């Protein structure tokens, strides 16, 4: 029906009743959807913050760092036995030491100016902020930074045990993940110097992120590699000036020997643990893993595991150099960066289950790369994500199944504890497969 201005207004209003109702319904459903996602985001964020506040009143890994900081400020030896976790859990070691490198003590020294409880709470809030910022940055890069995307990330974080346990132990993993993601984003925007500086800082907190500077050389990011190496060197030099030679000797001696007793733990998902665990067994207050062989020393088992891990790193670096030697394709580079982080997590002697939050980075780079690969990679994609399924299991479930297997099959129990490592290896192999396909597509 054609309307003109001469017709009564009531007729014009009756001509569009359905359209007006549709707009009202649309606004109503938009309001409901916004309220739903906003409520989920707010409630899960509040839940995670409450968890941070609660755990800050009890034992965390920050107790080890805080004790070392206080000793440094008072001129006492850093790496003498401490007493943080021994009153709460059964340890597999006769003594408890501060396990982090001396350079990390220097970076965290300002927290020693506060009493322990406020310092622990402040550190926990910093880690929570680092994890939240990491999530926002990755969602934004993936194009999913909407209210719905943020709410889903918050819900997933509240349900995903590595995210909640990383808050509980208050180790470095959230900060390390943010530094790695920040370096990647800065490099993508052409700020190689800042990217290298962040990687250098990450290497001062933990040893394995320093291996990412090899990636900067592979991708011909010379400025990033140079600044990262200078940052590492400056941090090490300042640390040597502030700590005594006895502390360095203690860290390389009894502290590392003590750390070797933790490698076979069932919550360690590194490749080294997959070798040491069946050779040496493991036991603490939660579960007992029998040794399948006898007669080997711990040092020999560790050497075998570390040799296999070193071989994996060497092969990975060589393969990545070969694939990137004559190509600057963004898809190939993103896959290479993701696989390098995954391999370093696998190769480091101790990679706790809660450290798997760093896999958010290779997952994001893989998702971005998949948008530029042909649809024929669906089978590879399925195997890729299947590899991450064992990492979704809660540790209490893992221990419960292990206790059921223990009287019947020692090999089955060891295989069960090794399942997350095998899944991570499958994830790595599929990343290599995608990288090969991307390189082949580029060549074609």
Mean pLDDT: 89
Number of strands: 2
Q: Mind telling me the C-alpha Rg? A: 26 Å
Helix amount = 55-70%
Oligomer: single chain
Q: What is the terminal separation in angstroms?
A: 59 Å
Shape: globular
What are the secondary-structure elements, in order, as H or E? HHHHHHHHHHHHHEEHHHHHH
Task: Indicate the proportion of strand residues.
Answer: under 5%
Q: Major sheet: size, sense and barrel closure?
A: 2 strands, antiparallel
Number of contiguous helices: 19
Strand order of the largest sheet: 1-2
Low-pLDDT segments: none
The computed structural class is: mainly alpha
Question: Which terms would index this structure?
Answer:
mainly alpha; 69% helix; 2 strands; single chain; two-stranded antiparallel sheet; 444 residues
Explain this structure to me?
69% of the residues lie in helices and 1% in strands. It is mostly helical and 444 residues long. It has a domain at 266-444. Strand 1 (282-283) and strand 2 (288-289) form a beta hairpin. Helix 14 (298-324) runs antiparallel to helix 15 (330-347) and helix 15 packs antiparallel against helix 16. The longest helix has 39 residues, at 17-55.
What does the secondary structure layout of this molecule look like, with pairings?
Blueprint lengths: L8 H6 L2 H39 L6 H12 L28 H6 L8 H27 L4 H13 L1 H9 L3 H16 L3 H14 L6 H7 L3 H21 L2 H16 L10 H10 L1 E2 L4 E2 L8 H27 L5 H18 L12 H11 L7 H9 L8 H11 L4 H34 L1
Antiparallel strand pairs: 1-2
